[in-house]
Structures are given as C-alpha cells and as structure tokens.
Amino acid sequence: MTTPAIWDAVVVGGGPAGLFAAWRLAQGGARVALVEAGGGMRASLCPRVSARMRGQQVRPAEKFRLQCNRCDCLTGLGGAAFHFDTNLGYVRGLSRSKIEQDSSGAVRAYSGLERTLGDFDRAAAEVARVYELMAEFGLPPAGTHIEAAGGTAGTGFAAADEAVSQAITVDDALTMVDALLLKAEANGLHLRTGCRVEDVDRQDGVWSLRLSDGTQFRSRSVVMAVGKLGLDWIRPLLQRHGIAHDPARRVDVGVRLEMPQEVAAPLTASCHNPKFTFLNDGGEPVRTFCVCDGGRIMQYSFLDTVILDGQHCLTTPTKRTNFGIVTTVDVPAGADGTEHALGFARRVNQAGGGLPVVQPLVEMLGRERLTERPSSSLIYAADVDLAAAMGPERVADIAGMVHRLEALAPGLIGPRTVVAAPVVEKLYPAIELSPDMESSAAGLYFTGDCSSKIIGVTYGAATGLVAAESILRD
C-alpha cells in the first residue's frame, strides 16, 4: 500500500485494546497503522505452549519444571492476554462486581468499565459488542468451556459475584486474532511488528511517532494500547506533553493463593471465576480475582521488580488452583500510588533475594512451622518470612479472606496451601480521560491497561472500540 503523508490514526500496541481499535478504524475507512513492539502471535508464544501445539507430549511430572525463570512471552500480537489460555469475563451481561466505602461509610457497588465510559448501559452494550465480534472472528459460542452459575456466596462477604464467564484457549485466540487481522488488513490496515515507538511528539496539531527502525509516522490521532509493561514509557510521556493526570490514589497489592485442586473445588464448582469481597477495618476492599482452576503461577520482570500472575492451563491442566487476593489500598496523602505499589513489590523481592516469595499459608498466619515444605507451581521462588515483608495490614487482609473462604472450602487453611507474592495491579497514574478515552491532549487516546481505569480482555477491547468510534466521528 502507499504510505500516506499523514495517517488518520496510529495504534501503539497489539493487545486486545489495540487490535479491536485498529480493526474498527480500518473497517470505518480510516488510514490506520498498528505498531507492535513484539512479533506475530505465533512467534512470541511460550515455548511450552508451542511444544504442545506441535503435538509434543510433556509428562505430567515435568509440567511444573518446564517454566522459565522469568516469563518473556508478554509482547507480540495478542498481548499478554492471549499468549496463554485465559478467561474473558462476563457472558450474560455486565455486573457491578466491585465495591467501595464512601466517606459516610456507605457501601456501593460499581463496574470499572461503567465509570470509565460514564454510563452502565453504555458499558454493558460495549461488552456485549465485544463478545459478538469475537464470535464473528471465530471464538466458540459461550458455554463451550463454562458451566451454569450457582449461588455459593458465603457469609462474611460484603459482595459475592458468580457471574458466568467464558474461557478461551490459545488455539481459539489464534483463530480469532488471525481473522480480525485478516479483515482489518483487507480494509487497509498497515501492520508493523517487531518495531517500537521510541518517541511521540506533536507539531501543528499532528502527532509524530519515531519508530525504532528509523521511520517516522505522522498522524492526526494516536491510540495508546501498550498494556501494563508500558508504564516506564507512558509516565515520561505524560509529563513531557503536560497531559492531565494525578498520582494513582488507589492501587491493588497482594498475593496469589495456591492449593490442591480438590481443596478449591467447592469455590469453582458453580463458577469458574468467583469474586468475593469484604471490607477491612480501614474500609478498603479485599477481594479475590483471576481464579485459575487447574492452572499455575507465573512470574515476570516489571521495571526493577518481579511480580506474579496466574495462568489458566485449560489445554494442559495441572492439579492445582490458584487465585489472587488483593487489597485496593488507599494510598497515604501526598504519596504516589505507583511508587507505593512498586515499593510493596520491592520489599517482597528484597526479602526473597531478588526472587518472589512462596510460604506455606499456615506459617504466614503464625499457626505452625512445617517440617515438610509444600510444593508450588512457582519453582523459582524463595521460601522466607512473607509476613515481615508485606506488613501486618496485608497479612490481616489475607487472614480475613482465607478464614471466610474456609467456610466455603474446608481444608483451604491447610499444610498444602501456599501464599505467593508480590502481586500488584492498577498502578498507572490516574490519567484524565473523556468517556471516549481521549486525554487532555487532543487526538491522544489511552486504552486498556494503560488507561489507568480498567484491566482485562473484554474491558480492554471495549475501550479500544470506543476510542476508534470517537476518531471516526471527528
């Protein structure tokens, strides 16, 4: 294709937000380029996933051992979300799964996407649209990997969300991403992979992007969709262009809990990804998230720290279940939430000698010292005192959660359950955005994780669509 002197839009990042934004812009007739620092989706898959897709057999005893010291399969088309089996979120409708306590002590439920887009009905419609498009691109109909939701909400929780969600395998994701890109390129999308955007400037109302291969794109609009790993790149960009933002006032910090699959079975029997929340003594929400039934814990480098996440091993399940337990911390006045969250991760890493930490739950709770150490799917980790690194407030939050969950899953507080840390989420500066995801700098949009508003596949895709619609209207 002939490269235009000025593009209508350049999308930076090929995860869910970037892919759906680029597709919609191309479909709408915009001259659009998608720039992705990594390679094609197949080229950047985890070696374990690639081996499985080639038909290579891995003995069950080797499954945990075949993992890298640090996962580096988080870039490339599809983004971190689609490089492993994952969970998409709600199928039957958007729900207000989060809660908060206001200054008067009243508790209210909300959806992060609802707040981002300014209206619940609009947010629900965008999520429904994402599912419709995913089905159009080849995602199996909802119900292929899920069961009907039940009502297992336990006592002691301020909120319990067991909305039906849909899982998606890497195989399905590949089919979907291929179909999306095929249609987008047929409509004129210019795809550039293996190339980083190194600088963004603005002159005479036009954005100028300098790429790592020395080329330069000029565009009327730019859609940022760089994900969590783009934090160190986005922060100076906000400062350099005077984009309206504030330090993060709330961040999620915590751990992942891992136990034998049969112990967690009562929690996942009616819903693959239940979300339970209570308020701690300070009124901060403590919640479960990202339940990986039959999954494993993975680690990756993040700035100067190492943090953890969970993997849904749908095609090669393990005999363990893990999920996050995080507190939405109200950052002390005058503090920067980003640095507050990174400080939490650094303290844990320091305690682990540069590694994440795994400790038996009963030891962290101070109940007993085990002579036989329970195993974990996280191989490269230190076995040290996690309570000292996290501090008494976070230990109290975890204790409050597991004691409530014990009523639903007896045996959860047992010798085979481990706590792994650190986990940090939502640590971007709070960027001021319109309901269409546009920043205070006209024509510059922030979507997905880097919007500072939401995380997740369907939410990210929805924000990409919203930004694209706004550009097409201008």
Rg for CA atoms:
22 Å
Give the CATH topology of the largest domain: FAD/NAD(P)-binding domain
CATH class of the largest domain: Alpha Beta
Q: Given the C-alpha coordinates, what overall shape results?
A: globular
Distance between the termini: 24 Å
What class would the helix/strand composition place it in? alpha+beta
Q: Work out the helicity level.
A: 25-40%
Total beta strand runs: 22
Poorly predicted tracts of residues: 61-65, 144-153
Mean pLDDT across every amino acid position: 89
How many helices? The count is 13
Main β-sheet, in a few words? 7 strands, mixed
Description:
It comes from Paractinoplanes ovalisporus. It holds the Pfam family DAO. This is FAD-dependent oxidoreductase. The protein has helices at residues 16-27, 47-53, 79-82, 112-117, 120-136, 170-186, 231-240, 261-268, 337-351, 361-364, 386-390, 392-406, 457-473, and strands spanning 7-12, 32-36, 86-90, 98-101, 107-110, 159-161, 165-168, 190-193, 197-203, 206-211, 216-224, 245-246, 250-260, 275-279, 285-293, 296-302, 305-311, 320-330, 357-360, 418-425, 430-431, 444-446. The chain has 474 residues and is of the alpha+beta class. It folds into two domains: 7-48 and 72-102 and 118-146 and 165-246 and 429-473, 3-Layer(bba) Sandwich (FAD/NAD(P)-binding domain); 250-425, no CATH class. The strands form six sheets. Strands 1, 2, 8, 9, 10, 11 and 22 form a seven-stranded mixed beta sheet that branches. Strand 16 and strand 17 (305-311) form a beta hairpin. The longest helix has 17 residues, at 120-136. It starts with 6 loop residues before the first strand and ends with a helix. Residues 61-65 and 144-153 have low confidence and may be disordered.
